[in-house]
Amino acid sequence: MQTREQQFAARTYERMLAFEQSLQALDNENKKHESLKARRRYGSLCHKMAVMIRSTGLVQALAFAMRKQENLTFVHDVAIVLGMKQDASEKPSMQLLKQAYTSDLVAYMDLTADTLAALLWFKRFAQAILKVENTDDADAAAEENRNATP
Amino acid sequence: MRRHELTHLPPDLPDSSTNAGLWLQRYLQFYTSDKAAENFEPPLQPADYAHHPDDIPKNNPQAIRTHFASVCSLGESPDHDLFFQRWKKSLTKLPDVIWGEAEVKGRMLVGLGTASVTEAAVTLHHTYGMPFIPGSALKGLAAHYADRLPGWQRGSKAHEIVFGTTTSAGYVTFFDALYQPHSGHGGQPLWPDILTPHHQDYTNDSHAPTDSDSPVPVALLSATGCYLVALAGPTAWAEAAFELLQHALREDGIGAKTSSGYGRLHLERTFSEDQKFAADLLKRVEQLHPRDVNNRASGYADDWQKLDSPAPLKLQIAKLLLQKIDDASRTRAFREKPWFQALTQFVAEHDKG
Amino acid sequence: MQATRMLFLHALSPLHPGTGQSVNDIDLPIAREKATSLPYLPGSSVKGVLREACADDARCDILFGPKPSSESGATELYAGMLQFADLRLLLMPIRSLRGTFAWVTSPYVLQRFSREAQAANLPVPEAVPNVAADQCTLTHASALTLKKDHQTSVYLEDLLLKVAAPSLDDWADCLGEHCFKQAAWHRFLHQRLCLVHDEVFAFLLQTATEITARIRLQSDAKTVEQGGLWYEEALPAETILSGLVLATPLAKHNGCSAAAGFATLSEHSSTLLQFGGNATIGRGLCNVTLAGGA
Fold it and tell me: Is C93's Cβ below 8 Å from some Cβ in B?
């Protein structure tokens, strides 16, 4: 019997290996640019999503991420790790958003805690498997300071 | 998108006692009209989303604009006033603190890249929801400005003393510059703003204020008003840093879109009674004519003894006064006077080259 | 004779009691107690700052113990009179849709505070109220409430809490008296004090602290350094922590009594003091108050 943490770790590892393989497949098809872009996007969310949830709350953060097509692979993987079903009539990411949207206070707190716990594994594996550091996302933040240069 | 149980709030919300930061970050609604909202919830039906995730309703620009407008209309938190007055009072009582008022000329965009569901955000005080300029931003701006001045480049002694290095902290503290109550344009600190993106402006898509290629003008929140800038440290260095900030805020500007004229501030020192008295005395001593030394020196020395200023300034005035006395050849005549001895003793104790 | 006081610390700017490195989604999280995850400021940091504040006083060595002098070794070492416990979270400011923010605490935190307060001879209300998971309790003068469809509620962050019968008036009196010298702030606390279930409080402490993105630019001031983006967590302005200070006069202390020691400590900690990390950008400015011993 695995603990919840072990489950999250094992599932996250599985999801991320599969994602890394899909990137390598792209590389082999000579689509390096697309592969790099996808890697960065996914990796950046691994680093950023938890902070986003802490700042804006689970529902806002999920809905915000899901607005963009290119974020959906990531949200899908998070949903799977959290135990959403793949064979249901709804996509796992949508099940997760809906569950967050409708849950009462206690369920909402639990789901948020679970999501943050799962995201910690995403962050750890992003560094180990995807080799993505959070700095890749920092250029926009630098933009403010860049403008200080006349 | 809010949690379901937050969808329908009491009708008198939000109001001026609503935390603006909370409202901005956690209370965005996708929809601006009730009709659109009805289609989305409640109840939630799978049909509302269809089966393709990309059918999820877009955060339409109009919704963001409406949200920003509601944030701005909150105006000023009445509670922030009490907080600000206490902050100012306790801060300006600290030793070695110099401060002043920085007035935004036009608009200012600080914290555009902060994590937010509206993409373009603004830095708001966590507890009180009013805009402010983080101490880290002021320090970064001054350090960058200094780097371009002779004698102040990164790696120079002056730069290291004021700003520190990766291994040692600087000697000057840059406090958060808080919004002064009632100083905002038209009585409100935040104003909605629109910027038409220039193709160079957003090269990085992760924080771009719109979906990348969209030509739609970007909604922004900009800050106005006056901010209490305060620095602490050894007086000469803190004053030098303050001057750097004055120039940097006027010439470079702070925050984002400074190339479009945002973020320029006029910063002016504010002096306490003590500081005013010391500055006035320094001026009087400087202008002291040799023929007046005989009559006035002892009065100036009395004033000097009343000073409650940091040692370097007291030293400067004491040395200058002794010099004036010497220039007027009165040293011998005053040598036995207690006030003269107080001056020489202070200089002996504090003048280390 | 030994004596005990309660030390209150009230943050006027964000406070970052650091932990060094951590495995966390935030790069620089605040220090938290292992068993409870409640934020705290280590007693050793408190002592360091207060020692610095008393440095000019003749009694400094008596209160804090002489500094070991490495050069001569001539100074005789002995224990200082004061011992500082960790300062633990008492009231956390949480953003609210009404009243700007609430000063939130929980039954567990108040009970723990009660036990310590008794040790410091600090009068506290006899009982700590209980509260259900989806409820909160307030004072009669609360500025936090909203009415909709006959239901009174409080909105903290993105949580909706139903309001139970007010039961915190005596607690607000007690805490206001100890933490604030001015009547205006005493009233301010009355309007904002809010007790939530321990689980809800734990959740808020995980998801409603202040998080700031910090960047370090390369020398061209245009691009971010490798590893130059990080997230910092802080306790927001208006956070209130508390903890015990114990005074044990020894023969070495030249007849300085515990009461005299506390008086010296109070006198030198009456201005703003800086605690925790990031001093050069104005973090951690706090008011310190000693209470109890009556």
Answer: yes
